[in-house]
Amino acid sequence: MEERVRQKGHAGFNIPYGFTYNEGKLKVDSVEAQIVKKIYRWYLGGKSMGDICEILNLAHVRSKKGGVWAKKCISSILRNPVYCGYHRWMNLTVAANHETIIDPVVFNQVQERIVLRNGKACFLRLE
């Protein structure tokens, strides 16, 4: 499985919010990607995950499966390195070959904020 992650960029997964899957690759969904960018911006601006859920639900923005937003969904988006071009499987994080939505520096800034709020983060080693 580790080799599959290294070669294909994933181990098999649900398609993350902000992406579609076509021809064996993740492709950015432009409408959902704008929501992802807002989620990151709001969180860095001081909104809590609960606040972000409320904003999205009041605006009638639907989750990937068409339902309402929960803090767990927001948490998953904020902690998932797929948004900045990486795939994570178990303890392995590898660079992927799909389009990105979030800059890796912004991703790590969000991880710092998560830690400040006593959460578990997923930092990337940027070189």
Q: Cα distance, first to last residue?
A: 26 Å
CATH topology description: Hect, E3 ligase catalytic domain fold
Q: Tally the helices.
A: 5
Percent in helix: 40-55%
Uncertain stretches of 5 or more adjacent residues: none
Structural class, by secondary structure, is alpha+beta
- Name the average pLDDT: 87
Q: What fraction strand? A: 5-15%
Structure description:
It is a single chain. The longest helix is centred in the N-terminal third of the chain and has 15 residues, at 30-44. The chain has a single domain (2-116), classed as Putative Large Serine Recombinase, Chain B, Domain 2 (Hect, E3 ligase catalytic domain fold). The chain is built from five helices and four strands, in the order αββαααββα. The two termini are 26 Å apart. Helix content is 43%, strand content 13%. The chain has helices at residues 2-8, 30-44, 49-58, 71-79, 104-116; strands at residues 19-22, 25-28, 86-89, 92-95.
